[in-house]
Amino acid sequence: MENMDYLNLLNPQQRLAVTAGLGQTLVLAGPGSGKTRVLTQRIAYLIQVMGVRPQNILAVTFTNKAAREMGERLETLLGGQAQGVWLGTFHANCAKILRREAQYLPFDNNFVIMDSDDQLAIVKRVLKELNIDEKSFRPNGVHAAISTAKNNLITAEDFPTDSYRDEVIKRVYERYQQLLHLSNAVDFDDLLLETVRLMADQPVVRERYGRRFEHVLVDEFQDTNLVQYELLKLLASVHQNLFVVGDEDQSIYRWRGADYRNVLNFEEYYKNCQVVLLEQNYRSTQTVLDAARAVIDRNKYRTPKHLFSDRGRGDRVVLYDAADDRSEAAFVVDTIRQWTNTGRVSGGDFAVLYRTNAQSRVLEEAFLRAGMPYRLVGATRFYGRREVKDIIAYLRLVFNPDDEISMARVINVPTRGIGDKTVLTLQASARQANTTAGKVLLDLGLKGADSAFIGLFSGRSGAALTDFGSMLAGWRAVVQDGISLPALYDRVLADTAYQEYIDDGSEEGEERWENVQELRRLAYEFSEQGLGAFLENLALVSDQDTLPEEAANAPTLLTLHAAKGLEFGTVFIIGLDDGLLPHSRAKDDEEELAEERRLFYVGITRARDRVYLVRAGQRSTYGAPEEQIPSEFLDDIPEELLQRQGQQRRSYGSDYGSRPKTWNVGSARGSSSGSSASSTVWRSTPPAQSAAPIIEQRYHPADHVQHGTWGHGIVMDSRVQDGDETVDVYFDSVGFKRVVASLAKLEIVPKP
Fold this sequence. Notes:
Number of helices: 25
Number of strands: 23
Radius of gyration: 30 Å
Distance between the termini: 70 Å
Largest sheet: 8 strands, mixed
Shape: flat
């Protein structure tokens, strides 16, 4: 596009931002408002109109993907004129500066950058060197403390010691840095911290880059932390031309150190800055925007934004109240299938968002049972996660001690002094005795020093193997005595101290432990069938080789955090219950609650056309089903924006209880007048799939029925409620299911 034609494609506010004069500009860009377009065209404007040379422009992003996208747009817009722009992530730009200025640094310009695994390995080495117990000072937790310090501009020398724990971490921090320097290495946090220190301590360097970068542009400014904010101020210290784009309402990485207050403080620090609001949304319908705005408007300490769209009102937001978490997942899968069966949309148009990765298991199983492909983003599939595979391996070994694959996986997890050499000796001795390694372990565990195998191992290795064999023998004995599956599960966790091993106090550790507890919930469901049936079920469910790993045309399952920056035609947000969203950690913390509200806001605004908010009346948290309280965020959405579906729930107090006890199952289409819904059912679903309200009971106990996916089943119970019929069916293929008649489309068939 030649000359200034691209400016004609901008709306008035976008144009105001792109053509801003010298000085500081804060662009508050609502979701879907075209911020990437504004940033790239601002760079084009600087080059073509203001005569700024590309090498005098620094553009900073948070991800390599965003940098690549911006680079491609600049190439399309300017061609060769864009060559020379410093465009990249904070870390990439800092690495470039550090290599150029290595003469001022305690490392050479060929330094290596340690990845997260390398960093953790160094922490573990330091703990061992200093004789610090890893059980008291978890490596992940110690590393997180060091990372937090660096992000707050605190060096090892300045690390405060207000407690014994602080003193230990300071010692580890100091030695950690020594080992990095001895290896001529830095970690990710050092890239930022060392650049800030370089600029602050070396006036000549600060002056050089300050003069070079006449204009500094920043994307996703709300995600900056303290060290990044200080770095930006240093880089823009000479010309003072700082152009930042962000939205405090979309700041959802507080746990990484991001501080949304940087957006609010920008106007305080730069008193004469120009503020431009981008409020026109090009992604979503007005109903989606109104629902999102109703949620975020409850937050304090923000700039109000009046988001608007030219895409019309669109469908109302569907609020579905499921009986339990399995019904929650079934509703999602059935609704997606209804839509895709019309041929008007594809599976790739749908996303299912949730607060924690542990919530994906029930969803994954629902998709597998329905024979529908799905794509899991930002996490390993539930049954492929390390902690889940560990516990399954333990249980498989209890069930079958000859399972050498499971034995090899967990014999030294958590670490118990059984190295690879010892395992090889164990396996070799078993082969020589014409038995299995599992039986050798059981013999050691049951006989101890009297075992014929004890002499094959050194004293320390023999003792470790004997202890493990004793644990295994004890588990098998209680199984023989009739212990319940949940009790066996708990005993394995207790005997191995697995929680202490997996949950190091970090958010990642907490999530891993949540996955272990989620697997326990499934074990509870197999209390009567026992260990064998449980393991057989897992083998069937977790066999996912037939599913494409990256199904481009499949629904996407991902956390709300992972959804940032993405968009989909239809978005489901599940788990809208107190303790999940908002998360239980936010209960007594106003800042955490505000972050949870921002997270919900980000989730809603991922949708172009439709939003489904889904919750469950009961949820199996740690095995036994527990009654759930609806998320307080649901109270924020005006009734006229909602289309209620699902079972009738009793009042839980708060505003939720003041809503109608009998839900109007009407049109999901909004109108500008806010008129009441018509009597047509499921207008949020395609007309061809909708059904007239069921006012008489059709299904009765002992009826034989046929389902499109689950096949033959027998009706156990049925009842009419909320304008529909809820049917309990036992299917030959998948067991018990509770379905909504108008969605399940059960066909009554003759008794076989």
